[in-house]
Amino acid sequence: MLENCQRHHMLLGLGALTMVTILVLFVESRYAAEGPRRREPQYVIEDNSTCWRNEKYTIVQECHPCSEFDIVSRSLGVCIHTHYKELLRCQSGEIVTRSCDRVALIEQMNFLKFEVLCLVIGLLSYLVSYARDRILSRRNYMRIERQLNRVQ
């Protein structure tokens, strides 16, 4: 069936699928970050740093990896479970550290790297198959030319 499609129709379809994929990724990432299905972490937190559960808070430092010293020495209890922490300031003025899941930006960047890698591999595969098709077409043309030259 693909051999019956014109090249510009296939490129148009591929472009449309790419745009739909990108749109779905943006919508999904927005709803995953803000959606009502967001669950609380299942790990234990420090008992003295729960003001963020009862009060309004602002994020002073976004979610970032704990230092190797904090993880090994267990000096910060929030670094034991996820190895990531964020700094919050509660409405009462207390500054606390809480565990957080892996940074969403890192996961998005890893996914984008994967997508770019797939694109590069796809383009290389296309170029190799195109070059192979050209070589085979040229061989076929030369074979037909030799047969016609023999007849004359």
TrEMBL record:
* InterPro entries (alphabetical): JTB
Q: Which GO terms describe its cellular component?
A: centrosome; membrane; midbody; mitochondrion; spindle
List each coiled-coil range.
Answer: none
Instruction: Identify the keywords attached in UniProt to this record, alphabetized.
Output: Cell cycle, Cell division, Cytoplasm, Cytoskeleton, Membrane, Mitochondrion, Mitosis, Signal, Transmembrane, Transmembrane helix
What gene name is given for the protein in this entry?
Answer: Dyak\GE20912
- Highest taxon listed in the record's lineage: Eukaryota
Return the similarity comment. Answer: Belongs to the JTB family.
Residues passing through the membrane, by range: 12-33
Q: Which Gene3D superfamilies match?
A: 3.30.720.220
Cell compartment(s), UniProt: Cytoplasm, Cytoskeleton, Microtubule organizing center, Centrosome; Cytoplasm, Cytoskeleton, Spindle; Membrane; Mitochondrion
Q: Name one Pfam family in it.
A: JTB
Q: How does it sit in the membrane?
A: Single-pass type I membrane protein
- Which GO BP terms, alphabetically? mitotic cytokinesis
Q: What is the name of this protein? A: Protein JTB
